């Protein structure tokens, strides 16, 4: 069974940094995104990296977050710098939605990792 394992979250002051990691055996076959869900809000895509390493970011994190991948370890990272209170939320990783049924991930999300930024 495919599993996605997020880690690296924590409590940090505004302006601080965190590095999130996500491991998944199917990552080398897919583009991977980092998503976050803030309290009371819908889950949103904040960063995405293709198999070839092309990246894209939500406007709210552009210039502060960097997504990267290490295919040999089936791991994707999210380096978060200059954190703001509005970055608070649970962060998840996943492959593109249209690809999930092929890997049995149609309704699957990992446990996520909590990021809390204090002002």
Secondary-structure element sequence? EEEEEEEEEE
- Our measurement of the CA-to-CA distance between the termini, rounded to an integer number of angstroms, reads 40 Å
Helix content: under 10%
The amount of beta strand, in percent, is 35-45%
Q: Give the low-confidence spans.
A: none
**What is Rg?**
13 Å
Shape: globular
The averaged pLDDT comes out at 95
Walkthrough of the structure:
This protein is an all-beta fold. The protein is 0% helix and 45% strand.
Compact summary:
The chain has strands at residues 5-7, 10-13, 18-23, 32-37, 44-49, 55-57, 65-70, 75-80, 89-95, 113-118. By secondary structure, it is mainly β.
SSE layout and pairing:
Elements (H helix, E strand, L loop, with lengths): L4 E3 L2 E4 L4 E6 L8 E6 L6 E6 L5 E3 L7 E6 L4 E6 L8 E7 L17 E6 L1
Question: What attributes does this structure have?
Answer:
119 residues, mainly beta, six-stranded mixed sheet, four-stranded antiparallel sheet, 10 strands, globular
